[in-house]
Predict the structure of Alpha-N-acetylgalactosaminidase.
Amino acid sequence: MTAALTRRGLLKTAAAFAAPTFIPATALGRDGATPPSERVTMGFIGCGRQTYFKNIPLFVRTKGVQAIAVCDVDRWRLANAVPQIKTQYDSGKAKGTFTRVDQYEDYQDLLARDDIDAVCIATPDHWHAEMAIDAMQAGKDVALEKPIIRTVRQGQDLVRVAEQTGRIFRVDSEFRSGMPAHRATTLVRNGYVGKVRRVVTSVPETDIPCPPQPEMPVPKELDFQRWQGSAPKVPYTTLGVHPQQDYSRPGWMRRLLYCDGMITNWGTHLCNGAMWATDTERTGPVDIKGRGTYPDRESFWNVLLKFQVDFRFADGLRWEYRTESPYLLIEGDEGWVRAGFRDIDAYPKSLLTVEPKPTDQSFRFKSEKQDFIDCVRDRSETLEPAEVGHRVTSLGLLAHIAIHSGRSLQWDPVNEVFVNDDEANAYLDQPIMHRPADG
């Protein structure tokens, strides 16, 4: 292969013309082997528990991936990321050979490198959209941890930038890669349960209140100002950020300053699967009503503790979304299917063993990491592109806005606005950061 036709050159050319380019295995080396110069080079932005335990191991074990950079504003986590990468190579679990991995505290410095093809972003939610947009505009393909946005407008911006730049985008979410969701989608989309009448999606009821927290000294390894980013500036306290020198569940996941809680966190797993199965992943509901319980006003953690939301779609589909346990249920006039992360049930039971017909619509069945890397190589659309991620996350955001407003709302899924409701529309471009005044 000549210098003018390197894999990176092909990727840049394909992105410039926004046209799919197939790169055969022989272009990557004899017998499909991938020489170091032809690998997909990756940077990891955010080195917390998700990246340390999942993203780094799973990405570097994917054939043809070379990790060359990491970034975090916590220097302890940053320092741990490189040995984790090296461990994967030394153990033989990663494909290829360990090479130098550079460390950055400012993600813009990582994005400025022209030898990085793609980035995996797994930071607190309030950083997701901004970093992903910056990455795509810097010429990087993006795997973005869910939930990918905090506002509907951020989702629209992500979709627009992905289209304008021709970058590959994938929601880094594993639920569609599991057998239960794949099986449920195959059955429902091919009519095996008949016409869909009702959907139920449910997430765990695991968020809890927390007493008021004192201001604490900022740990020496943390750049707290940079961690906060565009969020309101507040004093540091451990339960508002993440545990010091530890990878247990971070407190920011229960703070409205930085996220919406389970309604978009696990919701972007279960609602994701149900929207995929019912072919509603590029639209939205037309009516929304919901109720929920926030912690007491003095609680430091303040995301919803539990909720019940009812959606209606334009075709009459009824959808219930609530806190209970993680599952999706899709009922048709000829049967139903219920799926979780590792389990699936159906009625009639014969649905569990039905063999799809050759004429049935089929769906990719591969890990989210492999799907992303394959699409980076051939410039095809991922299983969860920006438009899908935007619509899936928006479902949770719309539910939260309805609960927060305390009234039924009408939604225009084409123009993506609430109908005749300026108060609700104000939350389309600003996140909910406080419980309602009368809640």
